[in-house]
Write a structure and sequence with these properties.
By secondary structure, this protein is of the alpha/beta class. It is built from 11 helices and 15 strands. It has helices at about 45-55, 105-110, 140-145, 145-160, 175-185, 200-205, 220-230, 245-255, 275-280, 295-305, 320-330, and strands spanning about 5-10, 20-25, 35-45, 70-75, 90, 125, 130-135, 170, 190-195, 210-215, 235-240, 255-260, 285, 310-315, 335-340. The strands form 3 sheets. Strands 3, 4, 5, 6, 7, 14 and 15 form a 7-stranded mixed sheet that branches. The protein has a 6-stranded parallel sheet with strand order 10-9-8-11-12-13, with helices on both faces. Strands 1-2 form a two-stranded antiparallel sheet. Helix 4 crosses helix 5 (about 175-185) and helix 7 packs parallel to helix 8 (about 245-255). It is globular.
């Protein structure tokens, strides 16, 4: 007898108003190297919202089940699968075929939540290699934040940033990636400066370990404050989630031969940008595209060792998905927005 599989999907036309609940069927038989996972949680990334409204990829084929992140429990495994068994708690990797090293274009096209169906469904079949173990101390809702925001921040700080004890990291804003970066940087012994337009959020960031907070709504020349907080040297690493709208200031706030980890475009993706500061100071601008399965497993080992907990701002239920996207769009969140349900 077929098992009902509830999903949220964009069927014919982009737009949050067109994100609707649908019924699909759980496959009765899975391939020998596949795993059927009962998903229980997802978290929202700005990418997911842009995908839903058609701005991330206007040529994306529909219907599409959104959401790049997920977490759940193994329901059944194919005949060749030895690593996983029913009852194991797992997290799918974002790029399903990116195992290690530098990705090729095919790996970058294997991503969840576009172009392939994502995790906003009760059951999903994955290749056995496309899963990692959930850290034991995390709930599924917390674990569902790791695949994109967590891994992006980890690679920005550890892999590309090369952060060591005594380094200085500047994180722009208090969204999911920025707060993960704060946590990983403090884990590495770094000093962390955080920007926000909210004094309340800055205080919350300091409770997480931030050393300095700058309110960019009242300190419009915040790059000068960054230099003051670093004895006029500049930050070693900047977590740049604003894009073209904030990049000129970041270029003035980073130290010579420092790194700007370019992650988001919340303040705009296009600009007439002077390249002189990059050239004259030897600044490295590094785009960060989440990471591989091997990166994910290294990150989870660090998270487990330090018993690190992701910052979840608010959790929504299955029937509240449009409300969750609306809340994400508002920018009021501090950390991650999560959707949790039980099949």
């Amino acid at each position: 007898m077929a098992i009902r599989n509830r999903v949220w999907e964009i069927a014919d036309t982009f737009g949050l108003e067109n994100l609707k609940q649908k019924d699909r069927v759980v496959p009765e038989n899975i391939g020998p190297n596949e795993v059927l996972v009962r998903l229980t949680a997802t978290s929202l990334n700005y990418r997911d919202y842009l995908m839903v409204i058609g701005q991330y990829n206007p040529r994306q084929k529909l219907p599409l089940v959104p959401c790049s992140d997920g977490a759940g429990v193994v329901e059944s495994v194919g005949s060749n699968v030895k690593k996983w068994k029913a009852g194991d708690r797992v997290i799918p990797i974002f790029a399903q075929t990116w195992m290690d090293g530098t990705p090729d274009m095919d790996s970058l096209r294997s991503t969840l939540g576009g172009p392939n169906d994502g995790c906003l469904m009760e059951y999903r079949v994955f290749d056995a290699s496309g899963l990692v173990k959930t850290p034991d101390h995390l709930t599924d809702g917390e674990a569902a934040t790791l695949g994109c925001a967590g891994l992006t921040a980890y690679n920005a700080v550890v892999t590309f940033g090369g952060i060591e004890p005594g380094s200085t990291v500047l994180t722009l804003g208090t969204g999911g990636v920025s707060l993960f970066a704060l946590q990983f940087a403090k884990m590495s012994g770094a000093k962390v400066i955080v920007t926000s337009s909210s004094e309340e959020k800055l205080e919350r960031a300091k409770k997480l370990g931030a050393d300095e907070g700058i309110n960019y709504s009242t300190r419009t020349n915040w790059e000068r404050d960054v230099r003051k907080h670093t004895d006029m040297k500049g930050a070693d690493l900047i977590i740049e989630v604003g894009g073209a709208g904030t990049l000129p200031k970041s270029m003035m706030a980073v130290r010579p031969y420092g790194t700007i980890a370019l992650i988001g475009v919340l303040a705009g993706g296009e600009s007439n940008l002077s390249l002189y500061p990059i050239l004259m100071q030897g600044v490295k601008v590094q785009g960060v595209i989440v990471g591989s399965k091997a990166d994910f497993e290294r990150m989870n080992a660090a998270i487990s060792q330090n018993k690190m907990k992701p910052v979840v701002d608010k959790s929504f239920g299955w029937d509240e998905v449009p409300d969750a996207f609306t809340y994400l769009r508002s920018g009021k969140h501090f950390g991650k927005v999560v959707i949790e349900w039980q099949s």
